[in-house]
Amino acid sequence: MRLDDDRWRELLELRATQPEAAVEALRTRPRRPLLTDGRLFVVAADHTARGMLGVGDDPFAMVDRRQLLERLLVSLAHPGVDGVLGSPDVLEELALLGALDGKLAFGTMNRGGIMGARWELDDRMTAYDAEGIAHGGLDGGKVLLRIADDDPGTAPTLEACARAVSALARRGLPIMVEPLPYHITEDGTAKLLDDDDKLLRAVAVAAAIGATSSSTWLKVPAGRDVARMLSVTTLPALILGGAPGPDPEATYASWEQAMTVPNVRGLVVGRALLYPPDGDVAGAIARAARIVRPGAGHG
């Protein structure tokens, strides 16, 4: 789906001359229930808000906002896609384009852990807060909870994420919590740990933060043993996509395997589908939709 010149110019004009229209379009859009069949397929588009601009070998693959919006329009046009996870700027642009009518919109919250910064794991709430999510008519929120035993920035992040969980629960809104184990390398950068035991521990911590877990959904990677990782909780979980790997078929297979775990309810995937190696966004979205709902018969 092309974002043609007229539509693009109209979007730019609205942003400049009617700034309130973006929030109003998001708040008043046609809504839908969170769950219709117990499954969720959400496209993630919150990466740029913390300076994550690259995909694969291209460190600036996501800098072209018009191209990113076009890819999101293609994704959201598929009937098997339930909604999108994004930062305020992205969600407001999609709402102005009418792409969120009848779709779920989840607001990303802690984007202060700028990729590559010395304070990366002290991940402050710099995008949505609970009040903004509720007032803006969003369907829920999301926090990234990176846990590193060797970085004191983890402590304020834990506290901030717990407050976000409690605040959204008080408003009856779901929140995705994405727990990941990290460590600090010798050069001072934050690095994801490839350790199943540390991942399980992080999931256990994430499941218990906040004053209640009644609104919490976990957002977890399709690791080597998803069943073991999620055996520590009864909470519903969504599988995250992460960066596109060198073997898309292996990635799809890992998602399919993860979907067999009883408390896995779907996928939240961004770059792997928006920037697939072959460039076929519609094909990648359709393939993922069939994994989430194998019998639905979507394209």
Radius of gyration over C-alpha positions, nearest whole angstrom: 18 Å
- Number of structurally distinct domains: 1
Q: Fraction of residues in helices?
A: 25-40%
Poorly predicted runs of 5 or more residues: none
Strands ordered across the widest β-sheet: 1-2-3-4-5-7-8-9
CATH class: Alpha Beta
Tell me, briefly, the overall form. Answer: globular
CATH architecture: Alpha-Beta Barrel
- Give the name of the CATH superfamily: Aldolase class I
Succession of helices and strands: HHEHEHEHEHEEHEHEHEHH
Main sheet record? 8 strands, parallel, barrel
Question: Could you tell me the mean pLDDT?
Answer: 95
Q: Estimate the strand proportion.
A: 15-25%
Distance between the termini: 16 Å
Strand element count = 9
Description of the molecule:
The structure is a single chain. The chain is α/β, with parallel strands linked by helices. The protein has one domain: Alpha-Beta Barrel (TIM Barrel). It has an 8-stranded parallel barrel, surrounded by 5 helices. Strand 4, helix 6 and strand 5 form a beta-alpha-beta unit.
